[in-house]
Write a structure and sequence with these properties.
This protein is 42% helix and 23% strand. It has 9 helices and 14 strands.
């Protein structure tokens, strides 16, 4: 027996009509009738008397209606109690710079709205550093990029990101067009994160697979300075679309890298559930919800949701 079936039954009794009840409930009449029939089958008794002029509850239906209404009131009260109860506490969340660019502010706003008594501590750092901080219990949660993680961690896949060649419009060596393959980047001056950066490691593997020797002209581990150098025309870079979320894009252009194996998976990683506080558990739900909303609304460039 489901609460949905109880709500359907109560509404039909109130309106004395399957059709009118279906309209108010936003379902098709056949689906409504099917759910009522399943309820009657489970109870092994007829609850409604159906006729061309409408429906009326049987004696069993009248008795069941009173209890169904009481059950629904209790359920609604339980929901209100849960919604009005305020969680409190302190939660530390780690985000990589590109992730923070698109997720940071929406997350802060959502937490302020939903859980105003939870104090949120955001840490922006490289994914590898965040993993070490999580391991040292300096963070409760972090959005990392798919990598080997300890089994005791809780891991929830969030989304896949396409990578882009980002360059100043004035850079003469940049390829034209909305898409580009790694094989077209030979000779393009690149400003990249250092070898210890996870994105650099995956791109090194991708370039080797494409049999291309990239032209690395500078290594910068800070996103803001890296993008300043790109805007100055000192070279192009390869980053997810979120890299330009904080800054105007009039002076740069992004070409999506179309190689199928080039991309980045974002995963929501936390300590095991039994180590997380109720505030941290609630924050984890909010992070996943906001990330998916940003992707669905087209606010996370190059991102694609993963099917559960």
């Amino acid at each position: 027996m489901e609460l949905r079936q109880l709500r359907y039954f109560v509404k039909v009794c109130e309106l004395r009509s399957m059709g009118r009840a279906a309209i108010e409930l936003g379902v098709v009449t056949s689906a409504l009738s099917q759910q009522i029939s399943r309820l009657e089958s489970e109870l092994s008794t007829r609850l409604l008397q159906r006729a061309s002029t409408g429906v009326t509850p049987t004696d069993a239906g009248v008795a069941f209606l009173q209890q169904a209404q009481l059950t629904l009131r209790h359920a609604d009260e339980a929901v209100r109690a849960a919604q009005q109860a305020r969680l409190s506490g302190h939660v530390s969340v780690g985000l990589a710079p590109t992730t923070a660019s698109v997720l940071g502010m929406p997350l802060m706003r959502a937490m302020r709205e939903r859980y105003p008594d939870i104090r949120l501590h955001l840490v922006e750092s490289l994914s590898g550093n965040l993993g070490s901080m999580l391991q040292a219990r300096q963070l409760d949660l972090a959005v990392l990029f798919e990598t080997a993680t300890p089994r005791r961690w809780s891991i929830e896949p969030l989304l896949d990101e396409k990578l882009f060649l980002i360059a100043a419009r004035t850079l003469s060596q940049r390829p034209e067009g909305p898409r580009v393959r790694l094989s077209q980047l030979a000779g393009v001056p690149l400003i990249m994160p250092s070898q210890g950066h996870g994105l650099r490691a995956s791109l090194t593997t991708a370039f080797a697979r494409a049999r291309i020797e990239p032209s690395i002209v500078a290594e910068i581990d800070g996103l803001a300075l890296l993008m300043d150098a790109v805007r100055a025309g000192l070279g192009a870079t390869i980053q997810p679309g979120a890299a330009v979320a904080r800054q105007p894009t009039d002076d740069v252009v992004g070409c999506q890298i179309s190689d199928a194996h080039v991309g980045r998976r974002n995963v929501l990683v936390s300590l095991s559930d039994d180590e997380l506080s109720p505030a941290a558990l609630a924050t984890r739900v909010v992070i996943a919800d906001i990330a998916r909303t940003l992707v669905r609304d087209g606010l996370w460039a190059g991102a694609r949701l993963l099917k559960n």
